Amino acid sequence: MANHLHEGDIPAGLFAGVTSVAIDSETMGLRLRRDPLCVVQLSAGDGHAHVVRLSRPAYDAPNLKALLVDPAITKIFHFGRFDIAMFYLHLGVTTAPVYCTKIASKLARTYTDRHGLKDVSRELLGVDMSKAQQSSDWGADTLSPDQLAYAASDVLHLHALRTRLDAMLEREGRDGLARASFEFLPHRAILDVSGWEDVDIFAHA
Questions:
Q1: Is the pLDDT of residue 1 over 80?
Q2: What's domain 2-196's superfamily in CATH?
Q3: pTM of the model
C-alpha cells in the first residue's frame, strides 16, 4: 500500500484498463461558490491512493478531466453530490457514470441513520477511520503527511464498501432504485451549482 502525490494532474494512462475508480475531493469549505477545490484523491481499489494537489485557479488537469467523463469507468464516491458539483464548477466537466456509497447506504441500511463514511466503514468493513484532518488547510502550498494519509483513507475502502452495499441492495430488492439514483446524481449536482441547492424541486410546495 502506498500514497502517491501528484502536482496539478494525474499521469496519463494511470488508470488504463480499470473499470472503476474511487474518488474524493478536499476543499477550503463546503460552500460551492465560495470555497475552492484544492485536492482530488483517487484509487483503483488496489491499495494505492493517488492524491492530486490541483493548480489553482487554472485547474489545468486534462488527464483528470478525461477520467471523470470516461463512460467506461465508474467513479465511486461517498456523498458524490458535493464532489460532482465541485468538479462541474471548477473543472467544467459532468462526472459520469457514478456510484455513491452514501446513497447506497441510505437505501440499504434503513435500520440506522448513521451513513457517514466512518460509520459505514466501521460496520461493514471493520475499518476505523480518523477524521482529524478533515478541517485542515487543504489550500496550503505543501500537504502534510497526515493530510496525505487522511486523503488516501477516504478512497482506499470505497471499492470494498461498494461490494458489500451492492449485496445488501440486491438482498432488499433496491438495486434498480439505486442505479436510477446514481444516474440522476450528476443532474442533482448541476441543480446545486445552478441555484437549487436548498430546494426540493419534487416537493408540492
A1: no
A2: Ribonuclease H-like superfamily/Ribonuclease H (3.30.420.10)
A3: 0.95
